[in-house]
TrEMBL record:
It comes from marine sediment metagenome. The chain crosses the membrane at residues 9-30, 50-72. Keywords: Membrane, Transmembrane, Transmembrane helix. This is Alkaline shock response membrane anchor protein AmaP. The keyword Membrane applies.
């Protein structure tokens, strides 16, 4: 799953949840139904027979597995994105952060003036806005 499709999926799921919750709040504010009757009907529907309880349990398990899958996908995207890309006229150069660390350590090892090294590579994004 690409980073863009993952972000789109999360955005759509978030919008569905927001629209559902805002629809309930709107219906409650317009007194289309009361909160007590909503809870009463929901409890009656869930506990009226064992089949409904099984369906609700399966939906809950499915949502938990979906959440775990999305967390796993996000971790995979973050692992694969640890590289620097430089576009040139000859093409694209891609080097991983680990390779940059190893190159820096090799260069520093050759310098006798430096006694201690700790490899730590960070990528920063600076945003400048002019009005």
């Amino acid at each position: 799953m690409s980073k863009e499709s993952f972000n789109n999926l999360i955005f759509v799921l978030f919008l569905v949840v927001v629209v559902f919750i805002s629809g309930i709040f709107l219906a409650l504010s317009l007194r289309l139904f009361s909160l007590e009757s909503f809870f009463f009907k929901t409890n009656y529907w869930i506990y009226s027979n064992f089949f409904n309880q099984i369906i609700l349990g399966l939906v809950g398990a499915l949502l938990i597995f979906l959440a775990i899958y999305l967390i796993w996908q996000k971790a995979q995207i973050n692992k694969g994105n640890l590289s620097v890309v430089q576009k040139t006229s000859f093409g694209e150069i891609k080097i991983s952060i680990g390779s940059i660390k190893r190159l820096v350590l090799k260069v520093v090892k050759g310098m006798e003036e430096i006694t201690e090294t700790r490899p730590e590579v960070n990528i920063f994004l600076y945003l400048r806005i002019q009005f």
